[in-house]
Amino acid sequence: MRDGKIVEDGPSEKVFSAPGHAYTAQLVNAVAREKNIIRDFSNTKKFEPFVSTRALSNSYVSRSFGLFGKLEEKRVLKDIDLDIGKGEIFGLCGESGGGKSTLARCILGLIPYRGEIIFSGMDVSAERARGFFAQMIFQEPGASLNPMRKIGWLLEEPLIVHRRALGLALSAGERERKVDEMLALVGLESAHKSRRARELSGGQKQRACIARALMLKPKMLIADEATSALDVFSGAQILDLFRSLRESLGLTILFISHDREATEDLCDRVARMREGRLEI
Predict the structure, then answer these.
(1) pTM higher than 0.90, yes or no?
(2) How far is residue 74's CA from residue 232's CA, in Å, rounded to a whole number?
(3) Which DSSP helix (H) or strand (E) runs through 165?
(4) Which residues have a Cβ under 8 Å from the Cβ of 31 and sit 6 or more positions away?
(5) What separation, in Å, do the N-terminal and C-terminal C-alpha atoms of the chain show?
(6) Of the given ranges (146-160, 163-177, 198-212), which has the lowest mean pLDDT?
(7) Which of 38, 64, 213, 247 has its CA 20 to 30 A from that of 186?
(8) Residue 43: is it exposed, middle or buried by C-beta count within 10 angstroms (0-12/13-18/19+)?
(9) Helix (H) or strand (E) holding 55
(10) 89-93 vs 269-274, strand pairing mode
């Protein structure tokens, strides 16, 4: 299906082996691209450390057996030692509940932790608190965009909310130009400013979320299952966008996904989390 219409149907062997419609061919090629990825990580270039964790742990307290049960500490992260290089796309995969998103929230400073998180010797506590250091891209783009507001307003909002911290007193015209620049950077058109989230495809919504995250010029993006809600073709395009942003902006990217093939396709290095421990 495309644009609300069935563009091709038939026996699965015929559709997948010899697609008759260009869009079907794009989908089939995107799947084949993921399945045929062969990466040699032995030649991965060395990166200057950008984010490092040392003995990083996180836990929460739960009560077993109801209201009068014993309080127990549940460990989510268990002494994580990790280095993510400057300008690196680092992949983190593993099963649900393994601690991937918890690690991301610790790096963002959203939840308490024990151990150390070191940012290349920088004191980023203030920047992290305001969202200047890193921004998160979530799995469900539609849930990240206010359905009552137009895309242009959603992208402009961070520039207004953080104008004092940014030290910028931008006019409405200057803010609009920055929105246009960011839309172009992620592959959207200026016309998308006047649309609401419900008027965009899944891939377009995710591009809008990425554009919004980049408005404050973060040094790092954390993509948490950012392609899992998309079809394979749109997902492949978002992976290409992350590559482009790394090259054009010098971003460091932490890419979290269940999809091992997509992770190895995109990332310079890949680690696996299992029961709160890291396996590189």
Answers:
(1) no
(2) 36
(3) helix 163-166
(4) 232
(5) 39
(6) 163-177
(7) 38
(8) exposed
(9) strand 49-63
(10) parallel
